[in-house]
Amino acid sequence: MTANACAGRLFGDHFLSRLNVDEQAMVANVRRLARDALGPRAAEVAQRDVFAWDNFRLLAREGVIGTAFPREYGGTDARQVLRIRIIEELGRVCSASASLVTGADLSCRAIVAGASDDNKARLLPALCRGDIQAAFALTEPGAGSDVRGLSTTIRREGDDYVINGRKKFITRGTTADWFMVVGRAAHDPSCFIAVLVPRDAAGFAISPEVGKLGWAGVPISSLQFKDVRAQVSDRLGAEGDGFDLAQDALIRARMGHASMALGRAIGAVEIAAAYMVDRKLFGKSLGEHQGAQWMVADMVTQLEAARALVHLAAEKYDSGDPDAGIFASMAKLQATDLGMKVVTDALQLTGGRGYLQDFPLERFFRDAKLNQIGEGSSEVHKTVIGRDAIRRVRTLERHPCLKFESLENY
Ligand SMILES: Cc1cc2nc3c(=O)[nH]c(=O)nc-3n(C[C@H](O)[C@H](O)[C@H](O)COP(=O)(O)OP(=O)(O)OC[C@H]3O[C@@H](n4cnc5c(N)ncnc54)[C@H](O)[C@@H]3O)c2cc1C
């Protein structure tokens, strides 16, 4: 491990040792970018609240965006165990920067997985270099948590698809060149189709950017499709693959949300702990008061446990384990709920300072909320995880301490 890579960490960085030398060098470089460029300008990015082009171009130039893309198209096809580390480093200082990296998965994964060879050759190198951008358009006014409620229709007419419907909350709506749009086949509502739509397509309207609580620097918009024509050759996967392609992108993006929440929470503890060392009250430093120490103890212990879970989810994804999806849900649920709690407690520990806009925790606090909502809210993941656990119990051998066949009349 390079010495620089874990400088400043409260407990060092044990997961780094599982990365190879090139991967460790990438983490060290991202840490350098976070320290020298992205961290110092994070408050300004948040204040301006327009797309963080400088950060995006820097991350593209340094090959960080390219970690999401295959080698044959100019990327480095990074393992998820590296991607989560990169996102954690960025989340520690700037949610917008972390989002630019997770967003590459969300908006481009389906193109990597499902575009025609021609489209891959045409789009992926430019997406990887950051010359163009894509957006992921799934959510609709009537379909957020319940994505199967989609009502956008995609009708085939010769070599074209005709798209009608609305999408909302679409990240990079104002900057994307291509939109991955998921809708239902007009002839068969059970058939989901994903197709690429260029931003200049006739009948396609993009709303102005919509104001929001946090994640400034990565704006969202609503989209409207009125008889928008897309080419059948721009479809992703086969007809019927739309939902699965979206899910694959979402699994990776959920691990991204988890890592971003962890990184931010780790940064929040570092900031709060530094304040506790400096702040004197009741005759000693805040850090010498047991009540405050216990708060920090809970934070760092739970954060390390959550990091282990996120890492495990990434390992499962990299090894093709079929449980990767459910572990991504668990990792997102655990890390994002904990992230919100840790940032709230860190702000509490810094008193009135933490509440002020020129202190970073105010921004961290506002940014933390979206991780619990986007890419499936915590409640949705609880539902998925709970349902999965009950399904597994049905197939397990009975627990050896249970005597009876049926437990109904126990
Ligand atoms: C800043 C931002 C960026 C986004 N970017 C994109 C994007 O790029 N592309 C895209 O397609 N979408 C995007 N989204 C949409 C995002 O994925 C949805 O907001 C999210 O999935 C939740 O859907 P919803 O907002 O419609 O909430 P709803 O579906 O209305 O749910 C509201 C709340 O109900 C609760 N809930 C839901 N289901 C259950 C249940 N079964 N049991 C108990 N409680 C439940 C949850 O607390 C949930 O938060 C973005 C959203 C935001 C805010």
Automatic annotation (TrEMBL):
<keyword id="KW-0274">FAD</keyword>
<dbReference type="InterPro" id="IPR037069">
    <property type="entry name" value="AcylCoA_DH/ox_N_sf"/>
</dbReference>
<comment type="similarity">
    <text>Belongs to the acyl-CoA dehydrogenase family.</text>
</comment>
<dbReference type="InterPro" id="IPR009100">
    <property type="entry name" value="AcylCoA_DH/oxidase_NM_dom_sf"/>
</dbReference>
<dbReference type="InterPro" id="IPR006091">
    <property type="entry name" value="Acyl-CoA_Oxase/DH_mid-dom"/>
</dbReference>
<keyword id="KW-0285">Flavoprotein</keyword>
<feature type="domain" description="Acyl-CoA dehydrogenase/oxidase N-terminal">
    <location>
        <begin position="22"/>
        <end position="131"/>
    </location>
</feature>
<dbReference type="GO" id="GO:0003995">
    <property type="term" value="F:acyl-CoA dehydrogenase activity"/>
</dbReference>
<dbReference type="Pfam" id="PF02770">
    <property type="entry name" value="Acyl-CoA_dh_M"/>
</dbReference>
<dbReference type="InterPro" id="IPR009075">
    <property type="entry name" value="AcylCo_DH/oxidase_C"/>
</dbReference>
<dbReference type="InterPro" id="IPR036250">
    <property type="entry name" value="AcylCo_DH-like_C"/>
</dbReference>
<keyword id="KW-0560">Oxidoreductase</keyword>
<dbReference type="InterPro" id="IPR046373">
    <property type="entry name" value="Acyl-CoA_Oxase/DH_mid-dom_sf"/>
</dbReference>
<feature type="domain" description="Acyl-CoA oxidase/dehydrogenase middle">
    <location>
        <begin position="135"/>
        <end position="228"/>
    </location>
</feature>
<dbReference type="GO" id="GO:0016787">
    <property type="term" value="F:hydrolase activity"/>
</dbReference>
<feature type="domain" description="Acyl-CoA dehydrogenase/oxidase C-terminal">
    <location>
        <begin position="240"/>
        <end position="388"/>
    </location>
</feature>
<keyword id="KW-0378">Hydrolase</keyword>
<dbReference type="InterPro" id="IPR013786">
    <property type="entry name" value="AcylCoA_DH/ox_N"/>
</dbReference>
<protein>
    <recommendedName>
        <fullName>3-sulfinopropanoyl-CoA desulfinase</fullName>
        <ecNumber>3.13.1.4</ecNumber>
    </recommendedName>
</protein>
<dbReference type="GO" id="GO:0050660">
    <property type="term" value="F:flavin adenine dinucleotide binding"/>
</dbReference>
<dbReference type="Pfam" id="PF00441">
    <property type="entry name" value="Acyl-CoA_dh_1"/>
</dbReference>
<dbReference type="Pfam" id="PF02771">
    <property type="entry name" value="Acyl-CoA_dh_N"/>
</dbReference>
<dbReference type="InterPro" id="IPR006089">
    <property type="entry name" value="Acyl-CoA_DH_CS"/>
</dbReference>
